[in-house]
Write a structure and sequence with these properties.
The chain has 267 residues and is mostly helical. It has 2 domains: 118 residues, Helix-hairpin-Helix base-excision DNA repair enzymes (C-terminal) (Endonuclease Iii, domain 2), CATH 1.10.1670; 102 residues, Endonuclease III, domain 1. It contains 13 helices and 4 strands. β1 and β2 form a beta hairpin. The longest helix has 19 residues. It is elongated and about 60 Å long.
């Protein structure tokens, strides 16, 4: 404690927490925001989906992603994989399925086949047997076998680093291609899944009638410094905080920035 000449103790000044840390502390204590009742939340979600929410300012977007980065500097996909090929397969298998469910099935599959050549040799029937716990397993087994043959015939057994080439593979759409480009090759792509589509519309960060429109808007507004990990931060935020039925606004680290009209109080 600092002292005057009289000998009386004076309180020592404490350093102010940076804004990012303050927001993270509030969220961890559950003081970020409250939400309206379920019926009113449904109405406000519909309102948000029509872009009838205030737009985000560039400084607010910058602050949101600063907080995401501070909370989780190196986010990773929750899918288990060992190389670009197994990542590609895992993402194909994850369509209309959970990452948890895919991760239960793929260890045995990848232990036998972690390259296109091994997967092609394994064959569709054996692949189907190994992934039968995953939804749509018959179609997915067919696609995995087919894409393995194509990778061998047209790409020298390697996963291409081109969106067009990836989207030409069976079972691979734009979202899957974006995940592979981002996770395997470090490209600054944004894979818009149901979580990111919901967050974009609900918060007003990037509204759109379809995933492609949301993706385009996110590409425009997210600062370049954060694009490498942006889709992971948003996916994880949608999966564990801004969930569909009842978002956990009281623990949201961007609750004071979010424009969602379903909130009642922002701390």
């Amino acid at each position: 404690m600092a002292k005057k000449a009289t000998g009386k103790a004076l309180p020592r000044k404490t350093a102010k927490k940076p804004p990012v840390r303050k927001a993270l502390t509030k969220a961890s204590k559950g003081r970020a925001a409250d939400v309206k009742p379920a019926d009113k939340r449904a109405k406000t979600d519909a309102k948000a989906a029509t872009a009838a929410v205030p737009p985000w300012k560039p400084a607010e977007i910058e602050e949101a992603f600063r907080r995401f980065q501070a909370a989780n500097p190196e986010p990773k996909t929750e899918l288990t994989y060992v190389n670009p090929f197994t990542l590609l397969v895992a993402v194909v298998l994850s369509a209309q399925a959970t990452d948890v469910g895919v991760n239960k099935a793929t260890p045995a599959l990848f232990a036998l086949a972690d390259t296109p050549a091994k997967m092609a040799a394994l064959g569709e029937d054996r692949i189907r047997e190994l992934i039968k716990t995953i939804g749509l397993f018959r179609t997915k087994a067919k696609n995995v076998a087919a894409l393995s043959h194509i990778l061998i015939a047209e790409h020298g057994g390697e996963v291409p680093r081109s969106r067009e080439a990836l989207e030409a593979l069976p079972g691979v759409g734009r979202k899957t291609a974006n995940v592979v480009l981002n996770c395997a090759f470090g490209e600054h792509t944004i894979a818009v899944d149901t979580h990111i589509f919901r967050i974009g519309n609900r918060t007003g960060l990037a509204t759109g009638k379809d995933p492609f429109e949301v993706e385009e808007k996110l590409e425009r507004v997210i600062p370049a410094a954060y694009k490498r990990h942006a889709h992971h931060w948003l996916i994880l935020h949608g999966r564990y905080t801004c969930i569909a039925r009842k978002p956990l606004c009281e623990k949201c680290i961007i609750g004071d920035l979010c424009k969602w009209p379903g909130k009642t109080v922002a701390a």
